[in-house]
Amino acid sequence: MHGPASPGWLLVALCAATGAYCLLRMRSSVEEQRRSAGGEALMGFGMAAMAVPAAVFTPPEWVWPLCTAVFGGAALRALWAVRTSTHHLHHLVGAGAMVYMAVVMAASPGHHGGSGVPVVTGVLLLYFAGYVLLAGARLIPVSATVGGGSVGWGDRPELARVCRLSMGIAMVAMLLAL
Fold first, then answer.
1. pLDDT tens, 3-17?
2. Residue 151: what pLDDT?
3. 3-class secondary structure for 28-89?
4. CB atoms within 10 A of CB 27
């Protein structure tokens, strides 16, 4: 991504940590946690890779079409899943945003200047800013137990919500840097 290196590395760390926790959620005994955790892990790690400061590492040209294909596939999967749950609509928008950013990064020579379409970037910024506000409000209060007993790390709904909030904040930061 464009911009200073220090915030870029913080964004990489945040997204990678979020992706790692989402991998842990894939081992959950709660089916809904497992179902969404894989896509969220992909988003976390993909965002971490995209956030690596361009001053430190300029990826080879083939990386951006690969990102476009991977997140395009994730968008198609989310589109298919929207039939059963509107939660996947957010995954669809997120994957679409990743495709958009990969296309913009591929089109910007040397990956040092933003060349996104201002209207698309603005709409995505509004969506994710609204999502962050809503996700933050949903954090209060959340019960740490399911069915009255203690739960494992992969089954904690408040941690899953924090991960989604973190990825939403990271998406806003990445779109602003675009």
1. 567 788 999 999 999
2. 57
3. CCCHHHHHHHHHHHHHHHHHHHHHCCCCCCCCCCCHHHHHHHHHHHHHHHHHHHCCCCCHHH
4. 13
Locate tokens 């464009």: which residue?
Answer: 2
Average pLDDT over residues 106-123: 75
Domain boundaries, position 136: 5-177
- How does DSSP classify residue 27? T
Q: Is the pLDDT of residue 142 over 80?
A: no
What is the sign of the dihedral through the CA atoms of 161, 164, 170 and 171?
negative
- Structure confidence at residue 166 (pLDDT): 92
Matching residue, tokens 């990102």: 67
Number of domains within the chain: 1
